[in-house]
Amino acid sequence: MDAHDIDFDSKAGFICDMDGVIYHGNRLLPGAQSFVEWLQARDKRYLFLTNSSERSPRELRQKLARLGIDVGAEHFYTSALATAEFLASQTHGCSAYVIGEAGLINALYDAGISMNDVNPEYVVVGESPSYGYAKIEKAVQLVREGARLIGTNPDLTGPGEHGVIPACGSLIAPIELATGSKAYFAGKPNPLMMRQAIKRLSCRREESVIVGDRMDTDIVAGVESEIDTVLVLSGVTSRDDLHRFAYRPRVILEGVGDIIG
Predict the structure, then answer these.
(1) Topology alike, domains 3-51+188-260 and 90-185
(2) Torsions phi, psi of 28, nearest 5?
């Protein structure tokens, strides 16, 4: 497969993963800056999607600015925002007990969801360095008393400064095991997040493309949402991994710089 399988010039909307596509940790990946400049020069609609729930769009904007890429906060959509929108659509004015950081808590507040550690409708779990036994114990108690369990994303691991670190799927597992409840995940590969992204871009799925480095989140989300998919090999997935999956990306590239030739 090559870039000629998709006419990128004809595409109006670009949905891009961040870590492994634009940067890795605090290192900008080759071609990323040229790709973003290409999007801006051609007035493409674009959205950076991340399953991480820790940082707010404003913080993500600042991170990209430190790496030399200037984009507005409106170009970021996180699993925290997807989770908040999902809960607000389910139960107006609901409350939640939250294990997570500012990006998740602020998104929930902005969606009209209040914090509650006594009798919440939901227990919401995202990535958090302050995750600990006392919080797990509280979450288990609340779920057993009837709160519904929500995870920002199903990722078991994510990239850290010193290697692989546990992500939301791993952090929520003890609560699932202790309560017998299965969490509902709002982030990728949930097609709901893809549909929200398309809505934010004001694009039809036929004129959009999703660019990601993970077969199990980015690419499957695109396939299930019927959006053209581009796998870049600058992150998690290698060519040797492809045989393990029943689905295929539309295009495979070394990095995002190859989109513009």
Answers:
(1) yes
(2) -70, 135
CATH 3.40.50.1000 fits 3-51+188-260, yes or no: yes
DSSP H helices, the chain, are 32-41, 57-66, 79-90, 102-110, 133-144, 168-179, 191-201, 220-224
**What are the domain boundaries of the chain?**
3-51+188-260, 90-185
Q: Alpha carbon 51 to chain centroid distance?
A: 2
Q: How far apart are CA 36 and CA 22, in angstroms?
A: 9
- Give dist(CA 104, CA 249) in Å, integer: 30
Helix 191-201 / helix 79-90 crossing angle, nearest 10 deg: 100
For the entire predicted model, the pTM comes to: 0.91
DSSP label of 218: I
Per-residue model confidence as pLDDT tens digits over 83-119:
999 999 998 899 999 999 999 999 999 999 999 999 9
* Closest alpha carbon to 47 in 222, 197, 211: 197
Q: Please give the positions annotated as active site.
A: 17, 19
Q: Can you name the CATH fold of 90-185?
A: Rossmann fold (3.40.50)
Tell me, what amino acid is at 213?
D
Kindly report, residue by residue over 36-70, the tens digit of the pLDDT: 999 999 999 999 999 999 999 999 999 999 999 99
